[in-house]
Design goal:
alpha-1,4-glucan glucosyltransferase (ADP-glucose donor) activity; glycosyltransferase; Immunoglobulin-like; nine-stranded mixed beta sheet; chloroplast; Starch_synth_cat_dom; starch biosynthesis; 51 strands
Length: 1135
């Protein structure tokens, strides 16, 4: 018989056997604990058919449960036992299961003699030899048990089935059968061979491991009990309120916290809870209820998991309400050993924050994308409805007009025209006859029909030449005409020639001819289709407009991004002759190499150079790094060192010294070296800057000061800082440029009520002060006899406004002589009375005006600037500047590229960029020539846009005009003189030029904003021959429009224009390429030489000249770079 046991579901002996009974599979006297079966067992045996008495289904009275069968006796047990013992002595016995398990053998065999002996014994014991045995087709259930004990003694298998039947109640046997689910098929059984598969052994090993683990846990429990009892007694004896177990706390483990309630402030509280966190209360907070313990005394405890990031655990106990045990207000804390330290945890937090920021950025981008998609869908829905409404209205309009035509239409006009066949429809070819003698074409040599349909809906769609007909009752001519598919009516006239050539028409006395299409499509269907076509056309046109707007927005965004990237690169490279990094863009978390060239600094010749560095404007949590000795670099005189940039850095700060402990320092004239760090988890805190000024473009502009206030403020605001501007409320303000203008509040100073108005100018917050004493109701900005008094009052009122509104700006920036009083008024009256946080920055726009005020402001200002590097050097020796040279800096002005933008300029004929600069400037030149009445010819055109003052080099301007005309060029001048004598002089010159060179020269002696835009675009050259020029914006605007500057080497002109022939090295040091022509000296020879070189380049090398125009357009002269320099200065002022 063959027996197969099939595992149906996992077996758990604990679930099956509820008592400690020992079941037997064979007659061995050893008894083994039962266990689950998780493998299949195959057994075979040879039974003599003669020994089988009979086989039948057991009766209901049998002690065996249904499905089980009794063993069949084979031989007396004593005989078999002797055989068994003899066999063992001879070494013939089969190894036991424990022996096989110990050797790792996969199978265990049980001898046939043992099996037969055991069966006989079992049969004798039960005394049920007459019980029937099931037939071979029956199934029976068997329970198998095995256990392997580690280090051991035993390997057991096999509880006898019959004993299991006898000793197990029916209900339990049903449970066994249900849970174990092993099926045995009874067949021909061989009594000496059981084979047990591998998994039995594996299960035994698992049980051994479980037993070992259980033993280990019992030992640990005993140790825990002993230790906690010892610690509780020890701490109680010392009066300690709490302790932890284990005593050495390590990361990523569970600890138990014990509190002696009787020694704490919670001694009368029924509830005890612990509230805490890790790492100075910054990581993984928790609140857990404590339970009373088995320990002697009033000890309560709870378990807490210590995270792997912990270096300290901080906690207090409380009653869940308002009673706390907080270690006398010092909190409890336990060090965690073997894990992170404070700095490692800080870095971990930064990494976590970085990951969160990256994740948030992705999620935010996705949210914005979805929101944009939603907005676009909503906008599309609204626009589509508007298109439908428009289409309905247009359809109705066309219907009414066509209805009027249909009322006039005919099938024919007697003796004038008719159509054959008379019944036709769309797409038919018909013959239209015309009587030549009926109208004005009787003498025409040719006859043509010009036609369309449905009130000329699609314009001229029929053009055919008529031929003479054989009809005899008149001068009839005809043409074959194709009828349009959806025509309701045909519209036509007759002429003596084709379109563009005809001179005489017969158009039915200006009414045109109209023929009804008799078999046209139904009007209702036609108008439905017409409305749909109109709707589709409107949709297409609208979507094209929207796509153009999106493309333009993307172009502007891309341009801004590219400009920002170029500006930053230029900013970083501008000091490359002294210091630079590799990589140039410093990223948080990276290691960078710093290169320094001491030969260009105060450390030239020093034997050693030490690098001193920190981050975030010297405020980084780790403080300054230890000084590092720099090593020689491969590239000449440079030295180098490496720095690990932390993840929370947004700025890298450093200086250099000659010794480790100091000595001579190179700190960039007190401003230190700073390099921005990108990709960090921390961002620079925004600074609050307030400008107090008397000019602001475009609402109150007289000169460059107004442009600086607006341009600089916008650029700094784009760097995510907060900017406010305080301005007088002149009665001549250009209110059209102020958005959301409204009254805000009033306050009093010096007995005068001052009204405050607020509005937005170019996106900037502007506070307009209106004193009720009439100081700013004079109809002008400058020019009053009491300008000094007016502006001094304004400065005092502005500071009072900041004080009374509780504003605490970081920087107060005042400009030129007009708001210079802010510097000393602040230091004398407001610095110690509520505005102590602020620092004063003062900018000189032109030292020629108000030197006394400027000199006093230089004394009180924390930092002072002027509008270009060269101009700062030119005036450094002035008596009002020299004593304060240590805090005086030159920062170049910029222009606003959105205001001066040839791609979005309504004052020029076509938009252009550097890619189509030649086409754009050609169109602008032609428009300029036409507007001013100049000869429309391709000649070099020189433009001059300037105030006509001695400072601007008017004698050089006059010479340049005549020299340009001598070179067969054209000249246009735009500007006026505040001095009447100079103005009259130029009026006379204008008249003279008009008489002698009327088609090549034009002087416009006024200020004309639209004309200035057209001149910047249409001129080939812009001449700026100033005797001195603090900065100059004209040359910068000229380059923005692709015009080439010709300038004198002074002030900001020298800093921005690099001569194409001899300034290549100087341009490269600024990260630029040469961009114009310049000259020395203030005599006519210098300007003539530069102008000749420029005009020669135009005549002799147009391709090169056009590439120069493209190059200068692509250079960035915006406020982006100066804004970075000003922010460095603002921080230096606050340091």
């Amino acid at each position: 018989m063959e027996v197969g046991l099939h595992l149906q579901r996992p077996v758990s002996c604990r679930a099956i056997f509820h008592s400690r009974s020992c079941y037997k599979f064979s007659s061995r006297r050893n008894e083994y604990p039962a266990c689950g079966v998780s493998s299949r067992i195959t057994a075979s045996a040879d039974f003599s058919r003669g020994k089988l008495k009979r086989m039948s289904t057991p009766s209901s009275k049998s002690p065996l449960q249904k499905g089980f069968v009794q063993r069949i006796p084979v031989a007396p047990s004593t005989q078999k036992k002797d055989q068994k013992n003899n066999g063992k002595k001879d070494g013939q016995s089969t190894p036991t299961l424990s022996e096989n398990a110990g050797k790792g053998k996969p199978l265990v065999e049980i001898s046939q003699e043992e099996e037969e002996e055991e069966e006989e014994e079992e049969f004798d014991k039960t005394g049920n030899e007459n019980d029937d045995i099931p037939t071979s087709g029956k199934r029976l259930t068997v329970v198998k048990s095995s256990q392997v004990v580690e280090s051991g003694s035993i390997g057991r298998v096999g509880e006898d089935l019959a004993v299991l039947q006898k000793s197990t109640p029916k209900s339990n046997m049903e449970s066994v059968r249900d849970n174990v689910g092993l099926e045995v098929k009874v067949g021909h059984i061989k009594s000496d061979d059981y084979i047990i598969k591998d998994q039995s052994i594996e299960n035994g090993k698992k049980m051994a491991e479980e037993a070992a683990l259980k033993l280990k846990l019992e030992m640990e429990a005993n140790l825990y009990k002993q230790e906690t009892e010892r610690l509780s007694e020890l701490n109680f004896s010392k009066g300690n309120k709490m302790f932890v177990y284990p005593q050495v706390v390590k990361p990523d483990q569970d600890i138990e916290v014990f509190l002696n309630r009787s020694l704490s402030t919670l001694n009368n509280e029924p509830d005890v809870l612990i509230m805490g966190a890790f790492n100075d209360w910054r990581w993984e907070s928790f609140t857990v209820r404590l339970k009373n313990t088995h320990l002697k005394g009033d000890w309560w405890s709870c378990r807490i998991h210590v995270p792997r990031e912990a270096y300290k655990m901080d906690f207090v106990f409380f009653n869940g309400k308002n009673v706390y045990e907080n270690n006398d207000k010092k909190d409890f804390c336990i060090p965690v050993e073997g894990g992170m330290d404070v700095f490692a945890f800080e870095d971990f937090l930064l990494e976590e924050k970085h990951r969160e920021q990256v994740k948030f950025a992705k999620e935010q981008a996705e949210r914005e994308r979805k929101e944009e998609e939603r907005r676009r869908m909503e906008a599309e829905k609204v626009a589509s409805e508007a298109d439908k409404a428009h289409a309905r209205a247009e359809t109705e309009r066309r219907r009414e007009m066509l209805q009027q035509i249909l009322e006039k239409a005919a099938m024919s006009i007697d003796k004038v025209w008719y159509i054959e066949p008379s019944r036709f429809k769309g797409n038919d070819l018909v013959r239209l006859y015309y009587n030549k003698s009926s109208g004005p074409l009787s003498q025409a040599k040719e006859l043509w029909i010009h036609g369309g349909h449905n009130n000329w809906k699609d314009g001229l769609s029929i053009v055919e030449r008529l031929v003479s007909s054989e009809r005899m009752d008149g001068d009839w001519w005809y043409a074959d005409v194709a009828v349009a598919d959806r025509a309701l009516v045909l519209d036509f006239v007759f002429a003596d020639g084709p379109p563009q050539s005809a001179a005489v028409y017969d158009n039915n006395y200006s009414q045109d001819f109209h023929a009804v299409v008799p078999m046209s499509i139904p009007e209702g269907l036609y108008w439905a289709e017409e409305e749909h076509q109109i709707y589709r056309k409107l949709q297409k046109e609208r979507r094209l407009r929207e796509e153009a707007l999106r493309a333009e927005a993307k172009r502007i965004a891309d341009m801004k991004a590219q400009t920002k990237e170029k500006t930053l690169k230029r900013f970083l490279l501008s000091q490359k002759h002294i210091v630079y990094t590799e990589p140039l863009d410093v990223q948080a978390g990276d290691t960078v190499t710093v290169f320094y060239n001491p030969s260009n600094t105060v450390l030239n010749g020093k034997s050693e150079v030490w690098f001193r560095c920190s981050f975030n404007r010297w405020t980084h949590r780790k403080g300054p790094l230890p000084p590092q000795k720099m090593l020689p670099a491969e590239n000449g005189s440079h030295v180098k060192t490496t720095v690990k940039v932390p993840l929370d850095a947004y700025m890298m700060d450093f200086v250099f010294s000659e010794k480790e402990d100091g000595g001579t320092f190179d700190n960039k004239n007190g401003t230190d070296y700073h390099i921005p760090v990108f990709g960090g988890v921390s961002k620079e805190p925004p600074m609050h800057i307030v400008h107090i000024a008397v000019e602001m473009a475009p609402v109150a502009k007289v000169g460059g000061l107004g442009d600086v206030v607006t341009g600089l403020s916008r650029a700094v605001q784009e760097l995510n800082h907060n900017v406010d501007i305080i301005l007088p409320k002149y009665d001549c303000l250009k209110y059209i440029n102020v958005k959301d203008f409204h009254y805000q509040r009033s306050y009093f100073w010096d007995g005068t009520e001052i009204k405050v108005w607020f509005g937005k100018v170019e996106g900037l917050s502007v506070h307009f002060l209106e004193p009720q004493n009439g100081f700013f109701s004079a109809g002008c900005i400058y020019g009053c006899r009491n300008d000094g008094e007016r502006f001094s009052f304004f400065c005092h009122a502005a500071l009072e406004y900041l004080l009374q509104t509780g504003s605490h700006p970081d920087i107060i920036h005042c400009h030129d002589w007009s708001s210079a009083p802010v510097a000393w008024l602040f230091k004398d009256h407001y610095m110690h009375y509520g505005l102590s946080k602020a620092r004063i920055v003062f900018t000189i726009h032109n030292l020629e005006f108000g030197a006394n005020n400027i000199g006093k402001a230089m004394v009180y200002a924390d930092k002072a600037t002027t509008v270009s590097h060269t101009y700062s050097k030119e005036i450094a020796g002035n008596s009002v500047i020299a004593p304060h040279i240590h805090k005086f800096h030159g920062i170049l002005n910029g222009i606003d590229p959105e205001i001066w933008d040839p791609y979005n300029d309504n004052f020029i004929p076509i938009s252009y960029t550097s890619e189509n600069v030649v086409e754009g400037k050609r169109a602008a030149k032609e428009a300029l020539q036409q507007k001013l009445g100049l000869k429309r010819s391709d000649l070099p055109l020189v433009g001059v846009i300037s105030r006509l003052t001695l400072q601007k080099g008017i004698h050089l301007i006059k010479h340049a005009i005549w020299r340009t005309l001598d070179r067969n060029g054209q000249v246009v001048l735009l500007g006026s003189a505040p001095d009447p004598l100079i103005q009259n002089d130029f009026v006379n010159l204008a008249n003279q030029l008009h008489s002698s060179h009327g088609d090549c020269a034009r002087l416009c002696l006024t200020y004309d904003e639209p004309l200035s835009h057209l001149m910047y675009a249409g001129a080939d050259f812009i001449l700026v021959p100033s005797v001195f020029e603090p900065c100059g914006l004209t040359q910068l605007t000229a380059m923005r429009y692709g015009s080439i500057p010709v300038v004198r080497k002074t002030g900001g002109l020298y800093d921005t224009v690099f001569d194409v022939e001899h300034d290549k090295g100087r341009a490269e040091s600024q990260g630029l390429e040469p961009n114009g022509f310049n000259f020395d000296g203030a005599d006519t020879g210098g300007v003539e030489h530069a102008l000749n070189r420029a005009i020669n380049a135009w005549y002799d090398g147009r391709e090169w000249f056009n590439s120069l125009c493209k190059r200068v357009m692509e250079q960035d002269w915006s406020w982006k770079r100066p804004a970075l320099d000003y922010m460095e200065l603002y921080h230096a002022a606050r340091k």
